[in-house]
Amino acid sequence: MKRILAACALAVCFICFFAPRAYAYTDKTTQDIAHSTGASQIEAEHLNNKELNGEKRVNLFQKVWQIIIQSLKGNLPAVTKSAGLILCMLILCCVMHALKFDNSQALDTAVGFISVLVLSATAYSVLYNLFVLVKAAMETVSLTMASLLPTMAALYSYGGSVAAGATSVSGLSVFLSILSLICTKVLLPLLQICFALALTGALPNGINLSAVTNLVKTTATTLLGFAFTLLSFLLYFQTTVAAASDNFVARSVRFASGSFIPIIGGVLGDASRTVAASVSVIKGTVGTAGVVLVLSAVLPMVILTLLYKLVFSFSAAAAKSLGCERESVLLYDLSGIISILLALTIGAGCVCIIGLAVFVKVGVQV
Amino acid sequence: MNAFSACALAVTAAVIISVLKGISPLMANIASAVAGVVILVYIINGITPFLDFVRKTSAESGIGAYFGIMLKAVAISLCCKAGAEICRDCGENSLASKLELAGKAGILLLSLPLLGGILSMAKDML
Question: Domain spans of chain A?
């Protein structure tokens, strides 16, 4: 018994100290394929060449932290400037309201109109940049998802199982890419319309389009909720990516996402196990570098939207404290629209991760 | 600007006007209008340092153009309001309403560049 234990201990020490490194490409043929497909030209901001090639170990937590810090460092100056601009405008609006005349409603209305208009111009210029950046990021994600489909079809054809294109795996991939397209081509424009209409609700005695704004917002939230409920339903039945066990961490994530993410927080909480399993699939197949690449595409978009949501929520609260009721209404409306945008970006990110995992799994199986 | 000076000026003018009302209502109205304008100019001169400070701060923070628009709107509003009150004191309520309408129109005209900018941004987004 002692000899067996000693032998095991010796074997463990041997494995720990003399284990061969697992490189990304094990033979020349694989390396040639990787080179001709352009895999060697992948440039990653957070990874060096050695980490990309598998020659150096990648610490996932360190890289994720690096992505978050870099996003914050890159976006905080612009977001802080935007917050400062909005707060300055609010103070000016407060000064204007202090000069209003109680017995002259016409002039009071006109001054209130200018006040809201000026604040809207500031908020528009701030949010315009956010929408442009999020739109660009989501179009990249949806294009990536859409580009996986012909590659997957080619893989099936190459593997000789053409009929497998009708299986649930490819069906899931098609659904994920359609969902990504819906997020980019339908929901995001709806939010833009909502944003454009939000101004009119705050104008004093202006055209009251608040019913239209609420209708557009309700349509966007209903579509978003419906699409992600379908996703949750499909994920329950699919077996390509096995969901992780329902442990304490999964339950905590589910609770947190339900509280933090609006509209689809519950659905994303239920899908969190699948997302975690998808990350494991990507990590197990292409390595930690692959996970870092995916997260570096998804996380900055989410962090930027979150920062702007905080700015507008804070500004709305400040407007209410300063007695600028109409401005507060406008800022709360805009904060609500950014909440939906945040849910959209997080949802699109999760869809991207699950879609990539499905693609990677199919590639491995074929 | 000294608030006590403004107060003294207003009270003195009120006393003179009330005396003039018994002698000549026309002179009383003229005196009321003149006193109102003088007090308004005195107030505007008094808050000029504050306006300069706000103008400088907003220019540094990048919202100088917006501050200019808001200041013009407040100035139009103040002038029209003062003029309308003088017209009402003279018994010309319809003139006062027209003047307030003119002020409203002036402020709306000021907002045209802003509206244009917002609409062009919204058009780009849509």
Answer: 129-365
Which of B69, B80, B84 is opposite residue A114, by nearest beta carbon?
Answer: B69
What is the per-residue pLDDT for A365? 59
Instruction: Tell me the domain boundaries of chain B.
Output: 1-46, 49-126
Q: Which residues of A touch B74 (CB under 8 A)?
A: 96, 99, 111
Contact flag A122-B63 (C-beta cutoff 8 Å) = yes
A264 contacts A343 by C-beta, under 8 angstroms: yes
What's the whole-model pTM score?
Answer: 0.75
- Is the Cβ pair A85, B61 closer than 8 Å? yes
* Cβ contacts of B7 within 8 Å, gap of 6 or more: none
Task: Tell me whether A249 touches chain B (CB under 8 Å).
Answer: no
> Going by C-beta distance under 8 Å and a sequence separation of 6 or more, which residues neighbour residue A356?
A144, A148, A278, A282, A294
Would you state the structure tokens that stand for residue A168, as one six-digit string?
A: 């649930």
Residues A282-302: tens digit of each pLDDT: 888 777 777 887 888 788 888
Give me the helices (H) in chain A, please. Answer: 2-18, 28-37, 49-53, 60-98, 105-159, 168-182, 188-202, 210-237, 248-260, 265-286, 288-321, 325-365
- Residue B86, pLDDT above cutoff 70: yes
Confirm or reject contact between B19 and chain A (CB < 8 A): no
A65-71, long-range: CB within 8 Å, 24+ apart, which pairs?
A67/A292, A67/A295, A67/A296, A67/A299, A67/A300, A68/A299, A68/A303, A70/A45, A70/A46, A71/A299, A71/A300, A71/A303, A71/A304
Is the ipTM, as predicted for this complex, more than 0.90?
no
Give yes or no for residue A77 having a pLDDT over 80.
yes
Chain B contact for A193 (CB, 8 A cutoff) = yes
